[in-house]
Structure prediction request, 329 residues.
Amino acid sequence: MTIGRTLLPLLCLPLVTGTASQSGVRSVAQPVELTRNGYHVDVRIGGHPFTTYYFDPSVAKPYAFPLRSAQGTVVTRGFPMTADTAGEDHDEPHQRAMYFAHGDINGFDFWGEAAFPTWSDHSASTFGRTVFRTLDDIQGGADGGSLQATFDLVAPMGTIAEEIQTYRFAGDEQSRIIDCAFAIHATRGSIVMGDTKEGTFAIRVVKALDSPPGHMVNASGATGEKAIWGKRSNWVDYYGRVTGEDVGLAIFDHPRNLRAPTYWHARAYGLLAANPFGLKPFTGDRRQDGRYAIPAGGSLVFRYRVLIHHGNPSQAGVAEAYEQFAAEK
Prediction:
C-alpha cells in the first residue's frame, strides 16, 4: 500500500484555444456559456448545447450528460438518465455518462449506487454517496468556461472526506474538450483508496461506439478489450460512426497523476475508465497492492482531459493532442 500526501496541487487548468485541422490550420475557439438551473449547469459551446452537469443530492453521485461532438452528435449512453433510447443496453445503471467515483474508499462503494443494488456484490450498508455541498465557481468566456463544485463523501455513519470537482470546457468547429481535476481531501481522518477494478474516472459511450461496431485503441496502438483492459497507457480512444458522423472520444491521463500511465478499466460494451488503484485484478497478481493511503489532512488530486473529435484518432491528431496536454504543468 502506498502512503502519500498531496500528489498534485489543484492548479488552474489552462483552456484550449483551438485545435489544428487536418490541413494544419488552427481552428478558432468558440465562446462557452454556463447557466445554472437548480441542481444542474447547462454548458453551451458556440451557441449549441454541449453537456449538462448534474449534482442533485438525491442522486448518488454527480455526472455530466450527455456529451456531444462539435457537430452535435451524442457520444454517451442515455440510460439510466433516460430510458427510452431505442437499442440501448440497460446494464450497469450506475455507469452514468461521465463521472468520477471509486468502488472502495475506506471500504465503502462510491462507484455503485444503492438505487441499483443488484449490480453490486455487497450489502446495501456499504454504499457511499458523493453529496453536493456548494457550487464554488461558474463562468463562461470567449474561448472557454469553467465550474467548480465541492462535495462530501458520505458513508452510512457520516461524512468521511471532501471532494472538489473542477471542469473547464472549450471547443472549436472540429472538437470539444473537457479538462477535469478531482481533489480528494482527507478532512475527517485518514482515507484509503482500495484496490478494486470498480473505478475511477469513467465515461459510458453510446452503443455505436461499443467495440464492435466501433473501435478502441490506446497510445501504444493496441486495439480491442483484450489488449487494453487492465493495461497501462497514456490514453484510450473509442471511435466509430454515430448517426452519420465519424467521431471519437478519448480520455488522457496526465503524466503527474498517481501511477501514470494509468491502468484502464476499458470494456468492449462501452465503459471507458481510468483506474490507478486496481492492481490485483488488472495484473492478475495477488501479491500486488494498489491501495493508496491519504493521511489525515492530506489530499490526492487527479487531472484528465476528455477530447471529443471528428474522424479517427489519426485524422484527429489524438497522439499529438495528448503530448500538448502532457506538457501542461
Notes: The chain has one domain: 2-8+27-326.
